[in-house]
TrEMBL record:
The lineage of its organism: Bacteria, Pseudomonadati, Pseudomonadota, Alphaproteobacteria, Rhodobacterales. This is FCD domain-containing protein. It comes from the Bacteria. It comes from Cribrihabitans marinus. One of its GO terms (molecular function) is DNA binding. Keywords: DNA-binding, Transcription, Transcription regulation. The keyword Flavoprotein does not apply. Residues 13-144 form the GntR C-terminal domain. InterPro entries: GntR_C, TF_FadR/GntR_C.
Amino acid sequence: MEKANVVARACAELRDKLRCALECEAVRRLIERDDRKQIEALVDHLDRTEPIYVTCEDFSELARMDEAFDIKIAKCSGNAELVDMLRNVNERMRYFRTINRRQLRLQPQSDDPEGLSAHWKIVRAIVAKDTETAVAATSSAAANRSSNS
């Protein structure tokens, strides 16, 4: 039984790393593409969903909203294969992300002095065409949502 747990944990770690890599690549491609219409659509999406997200206590819904945000960035990047790969990884991780949401809700919502959510940090960096900050914020957010947390 212990060997099965080790294998399951190793697989979860690989999925976390893959998800993080895919999300970071989507951010890079979106910034490189510099499609202002797509970036405005991302800002509009976050304007509509973030107020619901920060008050939501349904952990399954929070995980779904996280996935929707990540998929929205991938779609805005213009790479359909990236979208498909991210959806595939998300489907395999959904249960763990839901559990992890419960753990994260017990922690402070933001360590940002301005009180920005992780999603807004990412989007602000995208709008500013700051690839380094956007990727770092994406990586940090992905690490916080790790299925091994």
